[in-house]
C-alpha cells in the first residue's frame, strides 16, 4: 500500500526497512471490524464487499491465495469488489514472492481491471476507490521492479484519484485511510525529495495524513482494522509508542491463530522491541502448510534473532533458507553480511570470507541494511569482536550481557575512530534500554563530543536519542537543539531515516 515515489526510493532506509515488509503485506489488508466506536463523521451507507468477496478477502489476509481464488469463482467477475480483491490477491503474491517473471502479466491484468472500473466508476464510491487503490498497487509493483518513472506517474494518478474520492464521497472512510497513508509518507520525506514530488502534484502532509488515518481508524468500515494497524505502526516507529501496536497485534494473534499476516506482524514488532525470546516463539508458532503463501522474509528475521542469541549455526541455516526461497533483490546483501557475522563469530574464518565476498556479488543497495552491508564490504575495515557481539546482544534485548561484553573492549592509540565512537554509543544504548537514563545521557553526550563530523551514525543517533530523552522530560529547547544537531551531520549510513525522525520530532515540538 505504500509507494513513496521513484525519486524517494533511496529513502526506504531504516524506517522503510522496518516497515517494508509490513506495508507490502498490508497493501491489501482490508480488515472487517464490528468495533463500536463513536463516529466523527456523519455515517452514510455506502456499498462494501459482498459476503463472498469478504470471505475471499479474509483468505487473502491470511496469505492463503488458493482458497481466495476458489471463493471468487462464485463472485460477480466484473463487480468492483471482485476486481479489487483479485488485484489484492495478485499484488500480494507478487510483492511477497518478488518473482520478476510474473510482473508483466500482473500489470497487464491491472490495466484490464482499471478499464472495467472506468466503466463502472461513476456514482460508485467503491468502484472509484478500487480504481485508485489498484493504481497504487500498480505503482508499488513498478517501483519494486525498477520501473520508477512509471511508478511515480501511477502514484500521482492514485493520489489525485483518491483526493477526488474524498471530495465526491466525504463520508466514504476507506478513502481516508489510503489518502492519509500517502500524505503521511510523502510529508515525512526529506526536503531533498520534496521538489520533485511537488512537481508531480503530490503535496504530502504529516498532519493531514495522521488526521485522515485517525478518521479511518476510529469509525466502523471494511478497512477500519487496517487503518488501526497502519496508525499503530507509524506511531510505534516514529513517535515511540509501541504499546498500542503490540497490544493490537497480540490480541489479533489470539483471535486469529491461523492468520500468517498477523503472525508476521507480531514477530516483526516483538523483534523491533528487542523481545527476542517472544519473537522466536511467535516465529515457531506461526501457521504453516501448503495452503499458505511462502514468506521467506520470516526466515531472515529468525536468522537475526538467532544471531542475537549466539546460535550461529542455526542463524546460518535460517539465512541460507531465506536466500534459497527468496527471488527479490532487496536484503540479499544484508543476508550475506549476517551470514558473514554468524560464521566469523562462530570461528569459521574460511566460510566468513566466502560470505564477505558474497556481499559484493548481488542484490541492490536501496535499503539501508543493504547499503550498510555493502559499505562494510567496500571499506574493508575489520570489525571488533566485542563491539559486534555487544551490538547484537543489545538488538536482542540482552542489555546487561552487552555491558559485560563491552567491558572486554580495550582501546589503544591505534584503535580506529569508528570503534572509539561505537563503544560509548553501545553503552548508551544498553543503559537507555535498561532505564538508566542518566548513564545513557552521559555516554550519548560523550559520543557526540568525540565524533566531530565523522561519517558514522553513532553521533547522529546519539543526538537523536538525546533529543527524545529531553523531549520526554519537557525540556523543549534542549530537545530542539539535539534534534537539530542530529540533522546537521552531512553524511552517515542512516542519514535519511535519522533526518526524517528528527524532522518529525521537531514538528511535534512546535505543536501547542
TrEMBL record:
The keyword Nucleotide-binding is assigned to this record: no
Annotated SUPFAM superfamilies: TPR-like
Keyword tags: TPR repeat
Regions annotated as coiled coil: none
Domain of life: Bacteria
The keyword Glycoprotein belongs to this UniProt entry's keyword annotation: no
Residue ranges of TPR repeats: 460-493
Name of the protein in its database record: Tetratricopeptide repeat-containing protein
Organism: Hymenobacter mucosus
Amino acid at each position: 500500500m505504500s509507494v513513496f515515489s521513484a525519486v524517494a526510493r533511496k529513502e526506504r532506509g531504516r524506517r522503510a526497512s522496518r516497515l517494508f515488509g509490513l506495508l507490502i503485506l498490508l497493501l491489501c489488508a482490508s480488515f472487517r471490524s464490528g468495533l463500536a466506536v463513536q463516529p466523527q463523521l456523519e455515517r452514510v451507507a455506502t456499498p462494501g464487499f459482498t459476503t463472498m468477496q469478504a470471505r475471499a478477502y479474509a483468505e487473502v489476509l491470511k496469505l492463503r491465495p488458493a482458497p481466495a481464488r476458489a471463493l471468487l469463482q462464485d463472485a460477480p467477475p466484473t463487480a468492483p469488489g471482485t476486481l479489487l480483491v483479485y488485484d489484492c490477491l495478485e499484488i500480494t503474491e507478487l510483492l511477497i514472492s518478488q518473482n520478476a517473471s510474473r510482473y508483466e502479466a500482473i500489470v497487464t491484468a491491472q490495466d484490464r481491471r482499471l478499464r472495467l472500473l472506468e466503466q463502472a466508476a461513476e456514482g460508485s464510491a467503491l468502484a472509484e476507490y478500487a480504481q485508485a487503490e489498484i493504481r497504487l498497487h500498480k505503482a508499488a509493483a513498478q517501483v519494486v521492479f525498477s520501473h520508477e518513472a512509471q511508478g511515480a506517474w501511477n502514484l500521482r494518478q492514485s493520489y489525485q484519484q483518491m483526493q477526488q474520492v474524498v471530495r465526491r464521497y466525504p463520508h466514504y472512510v476507506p478513502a481516508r485511510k489510503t489518502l492519509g497513508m500517502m500524505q503521511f509518507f510523502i510529508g515525512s520525506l526529506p526536503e531533498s525529495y520534496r521538489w520533485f514530488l511537488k512537481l508531480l502534484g503530490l503535496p504530502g502532509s504529516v498532519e493531514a495524513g495522521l488526521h485522515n488515518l485517525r478518521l479511518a481508524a476510529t469509525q466502523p468500515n471494511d478497512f477500519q482494522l487496517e487503518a488501526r494497524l497502519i496508525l499503530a505502526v507509524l506511531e510505534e516507529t516514529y513517535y515511540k509508542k509501541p504499546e498500542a501496536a503490540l497490544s493490537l497485534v497480540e490480541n489479533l494473534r489470539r483471535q486469529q491463530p491461523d492468520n500468517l499476516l498477523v503472525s508476521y506482524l507480531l514477530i516483526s514488532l516483538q523483534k523491533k522491541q528487542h523481545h527476542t525470546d517472544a519473537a522466536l516463539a511467535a516465529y515457531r508458532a506461526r501457521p504453516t502448510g501448503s495452503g499458505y503463501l511462502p514468506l521467506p522474509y520470516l526466515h531472515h528475521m529468525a536468522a537475526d534473532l538467532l544471531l542475537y542469541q549466539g546460535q550461529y549455526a542455526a542463524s546460518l541455516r535460517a539465512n541460507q533458507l531465506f536466500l534459497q526461497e527468496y527471488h527479490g533483490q532487496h536484503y540479499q546483501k544484508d543476508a550475506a553480511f549476517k551470514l558473514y557475522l554468524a560464521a566469523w563469530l562462530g570461528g569459521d574464518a574460511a566460510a566468513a570470507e566466502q560470505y564477505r565476498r558474497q556481499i559484493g556479488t548481488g542484490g541492490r543497495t536501496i535499503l539501508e541494511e543493504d547499503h550498510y552491508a555493502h559499505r562494510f564490504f567496500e571499506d574493508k575495515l575489520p570489525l571488533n569482536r566485542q563491539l559486534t557481539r555487544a551490538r547484537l546482544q543489545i538488538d536482542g534485548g540482552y542489555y546487561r550481557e552487552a555491558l559485560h561484553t563491552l567491558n572486554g573492549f580495550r582501546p589503544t592509540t591505534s584503535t580506529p575512530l569508528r570503534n572509539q565512537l561505537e563503544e560509548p554509543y553501545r553503552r548508551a544504548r544498553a543503559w537507555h534500554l535498561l532505564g538508566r537514563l542518566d548513564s545513557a545521557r552521559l555516554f550519548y553526550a560523550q559520543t557526540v563530543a568525540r565524533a566531530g563530523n565523522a561519517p558514522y551514525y553513532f553521533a547522529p543517533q546519539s543526538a537523536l536519542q538525546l533529543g527524545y530523552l529531553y523531549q520526554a522530560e519537557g525540556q523543549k529547547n534542549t530537545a530542539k537543539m539535539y534534534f537539530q544537531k542530529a540533522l546537521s551531520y552531512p553524511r552517515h549510513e542512516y542519514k535519511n531515516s535519522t533526518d526524517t525522525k528528527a524532522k518529525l520530532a521537531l514538528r511535534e515540538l512546535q505543536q501547542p
